[in-house]
């Protein structure tokens, strides 16, 4: 997996853009929606606003990080792809990055208030999903929050994008029920999931409608989060 994403260190954004071109939307539309969701999560989950130590697991080249500027007190990013981490560091000097090779995350117990992983779990072999969640839990302090953002396998346009994405050939998609079950099996509490990226518009009416329909598995992606 590390080698695969090492090879996309210079053209990751272009590869994603190519796979979603049929939608008429740019990569930034999706990144802004994810960043807004994470900002909202901080508030809804009662994390200290402005004082959150956050970790992005599987951050890749750090595409999401410019959109998270000012959202947290500190932001760390880590990935198994060393080349992606080098590129992320060049592009985002305010974020602290680490590459790692072992299943264990390179951080101490309870080091973060929030850990999130965006479009990562479907690249982790299913046999390692529980270990991935256990590690996410280990690095979050008691009362902190973990969140994954994943493709919704029930959305046909998401399926098409995955089919067209050159680095998604081995992806194993998981639905929100499976994500909730993984959070539950690894000891998390207050597990919630919501679907988003349903409508191709950032207007407030579209966002309100999307929030109303979030329990249904309609949106292109979903977020599942829980407390430690
Ligand atoms: C589709 S990219 C997503 C990158 C970034 N999170 C984003 O949303 O733009 C998937 C990333 O997960 C990383 N990855 C795969 N398995 C991983 C693991 N076990 N631990 C950490 N990162 C992993 C890959 O190296 C790659 O950078």
From TrEMBL:
Would the keyword Kinase turn up in this protein's UniProt record?
Answer: no
Question: Biological process (GO) annotations?
Answer: methylation
Keyword line: Methyltransferase, Transferase
Q: Where do the Methyltransferase type domain residues begin and end?
A: 55-147
Keyword Phosphoprotein attributed: no
GO MF, one annotated term:
methyltransferase activity
Q: Name one Pfam family in it.
A: Methyltransf_11
Return the protein name.
Methyltransferase domain-containing protein
Q: Which organism is it from?
A: Mesorhizobium ventifaucium
